[in-house]
Amino acid sequence: MTTLPQQHLDALIPSSHADGDRDAVLQARFADVFERIAAGAVAREQNRELAYEAVQWLREAGFPALRVPQRYGGDGVTLPQFFRLLTRLGEADSNLPQILRLNFGFIENRLEGDDEAIRERWLTRVANGELVGAALSERTASTHNSVTLTRDPHDSQRWRLNGEKYYSTGSLYADWINVNAHDGEYDVNLMVRGNAPGVNRLDDWDGFGQRLTTSGTTRFDNVEVLEEQILLRHRLSEPQHDTFQIAFYQNVHLATLAGIARAALRDATAFARAHTRTFGVPGKSSPRDNPLVQRVIGRLASLSYSAESLVNALAESLERASQAREAGLATEATYIALDVEAYQAQQIVIAQVLEATTLLFEVGGASATSERLRLDRHWRNARVISSHNPAIQREQAIGAFHLNGTPPSERFSLAHKKDVNQSEA
């Protein structure tokens, strides 16, 4: 029997002709790292072993700096290239894209709005291997920022940071933590060293999935902040510039989900090939030749293909918007269209990946539920990722847009702010 190699199957996922050759180089560059990460995924899950080693492998390979422009020392990959690689990382271990999500969002923020001095300072650091995490959100349902930034009474160029954040995704792995605070007049976005005196990072995330993302509490006790660590001061009541950050952050989640679908197909296929008994068939038999097992695998392959194709399509739209922005041609309509596309993709990818992570158990019956295999991690991780952002609100926003032309950002401004300003585990 002839088996089509996985790289041939991957070629079915759409990519532009211009990206093709570099895609192959990038995939080859990270193949070994992804393989090592995947090899330890089950053990890390079973032991709740934080992924410090895996994160270090990615740092050494330059993965966190993929989107940093070459002039600052990064790779400057396109958004479609980036999201295809992120999907492969999600296949290896879905905790890793989420650990790095705020690092990648931080890069996009710098590319979008900062002056050159800030952009060069921080992007060069990321290119040199320094990792960014975040402590942006709080447990409260309010949009109030309870973390305070007050001027040091002894030095006008220094500040003191106090308070507590939750959903601090990736902070325990990070060199720098991006923090939202309030100085009494303005909301302030700033950076603090992860190991600075007074910073206390806790691994108290208690979700049943994505357990290794360190998405718990970060406390700040009189942490010193220099003026150069402050990125932005603004009032929440002030109108914000149009941005593709919402669609970008959402596609990171969708790429992670598409990676989980690939992992579900991979593990279901490996399980069926290795076994010599088909459910419901006494004695020795070949699951790989059973039409019902073949049908399950066929469905899993189709769900994975669809999810990955939607991620790639949204990545292409993000790339076009990025190019329009750089050329000064992006308009409000550009960003509204991105939001709508991201929300529509979210509805489909979530449903497809949750179906895939349940369906994979149909290839093996009760033996597929073994703790040794931890196949349940795919559903648990997908379910947690799918819960981060309000999919049901987004579906209503899509309908309101098509019926009444209401921009999603107007209808669900708080949901937008939540998506941009927190990784939510």
Strand content: 5-15%
Helix and strand element order: HHHHHHHHEEEEEEEEHHHHHHH
Uncertain stretches of 5 or more adjacent residues: 1-5, 411-425
- Write down the domain tally: 3
Shape: globular
Helix content: 40-55%
CATH architecture of the largest domain: Up-down Bundle
In DSSP terms, counting alpha (H) and pi (I) runs of 4 or more, how many helices?
Answer: 15
Query: How would a crystallographer describe the biggest sheet?
Result: 4 strands, mixed
Mean pLDDT: 88
Determine the structural class based on helices, strands and strand pairing. Answer: alpha+beta
Q: How far apart are the first and last residues' alpha carbons, in Å?
A: 44 Å
CATH superfamily of the largest domain: Butyryl-CoA Dehydrogenase, subunit A, domain 3
Pfam family, one: Acyl-CoA_dh_N
Protein name: Dibenzothiophene monooxygenase
Subcellular location: Cytoplasm
Keywords: Flavoprotein, FMN, Monooxygenase, Nucleotide-binding, Oxidoreductase
Quick overview:
With 425 residues, this protein is of the alpha+beta class.
Describe the 3D structure:
Its main location: cytoplasm. This is Dibenzothiophene monooxygenase. Residues 35-130 form the Acyl-CoA dehydrogenase/oxidase N-terminal domain. Its EC number is 1.14.14.21. Pathway: Sulfur metabolism; dibenzothiophene degradation. There is one protein chain. The strands form two sheets. A four-stranded mixed beta sheet has the order 1-4-5-8, covered by helices on one side. It is an alpha+beta fold and 425 residues long. It has three domains: 6-130, Acyl-CoA dehydrogenase/oxidase, N-terminal domain (Butyryl-Coa Dehydrogenase, subunit A, domain 1, Orthogonal Bundle); 134-234, Butyryl-CoA Dehydrogenase, subunit A, domain 2, CATH 2.40.110.10; 245-421, Butyryl-CoA Dehydrogenase, subunit A, domain 3 (Up-down Bundle), CATH 1.20.140.10. The protein has 15 helices and eight strands. Helix 5 runs antiparallel to helix 10 (291-326) and helix 9 packs across helix 15 (413-421). Residues 1-5 and 411-425 have low confidence and may be disordered. The protein has helices at 6-10, 17-39, 41-47, 52-61, 79-92, 95-99, 101-113, 116-127, 245-274, 291-326, 332-359, 376-386, 391-404, 408-411, 413-421, and strands at 132-135, 148-151, 158-165, 176-182, 187-193, 199-201, 218-226, 230-234. The protein is 52% helix and 11% strand. A hairpin with a 4-residue loop joins strand 4 (176-182) and strand 5. The protein starts with 5 loop residues before the first helix and ends with a helix.
